Request: fold
Amino acid sequence: MNSTGTGFLVAPDLVVTAAHVVDDAAAISIDFGGTSVGGVILGFNELADLALIRLESKAAGHQFQFQSSEPPIGTEVAALGFPQRESLTLTRGVVSGLNRDINFGSGVIGNMLQTDTAINPGNSGGPLLNMEGKVTGVVSATRKDSEGMAYAVTAPRVTEAVSEWQKRGVPMAPVDCGEAPAPNSGIFPMKVSSNHDQANNIGQALLLHGQGINRGAYSAAFKQFTPELGASFGGEAKWSEGLGSSYWTKLEVVNVTGAGDSLEANVLLQTRQDAGHGVDGQTCSNWRITYTIVWDGAAWRIAGTSLPHGKPLPCN
Reply:
């Protein structure tokens, strides 16, 4: 599954998010303003739409505190998140209902908080804050058939779950997508050096593509291509024929240029592979690639690649 959402720190190595954001994940990465940290699921409850992620390394940032009780109707609240893969946004509203039972398709989630705060895809898993900055709920979803009706898991329910998972949680294994040639569950470091307002989002799109390759989840990696580019490769099976020993080890988005729905990303990429799959027998290669990235209305997709500087160089 390829999805993105919002999460927030509750400890240097713990991130709370919504369960549906990480459900069926082959690999999980959390972006912290241009750097990416891998994570594993420490706690997961589909019927509460909650998940707790343990980071592979500690992260600096604000650690949120939870409100101890449910807020009364009319309480002013604000949602923090990354809707539609845009940069961080804050939207304001009020608590418009309590104790709602909502079924979004996987079963009834009970005792949810209702709000008229503007919520969009990508906000899921983010904090709903009171005016003191404490988390009063974790954003779950909106009603597609109604405007101004969004829902969050209440702070007391989240506090209980996080406490239990911290005491008793055992990391869940990522979904096995078949052959997985890369070590460390396919996680690799990603850096964004460009200050373009879509650079982080493009980095995440490339990260998902690379993690799919590393996990042997070639179908997920292939979906990061536009249909036109995918067809030019002759389809998923033909494209993935030579990837059995190849995996990504390092990624840097150096520069992003353009505007609107079509951008170009200049990228430094390091890969490892068997000599038989490497250029000139290379087992470790440093690539300088220009990706053409387009917005398809829902996500950034890879529409083309080029090597303006020629063949990759062997790693030092």
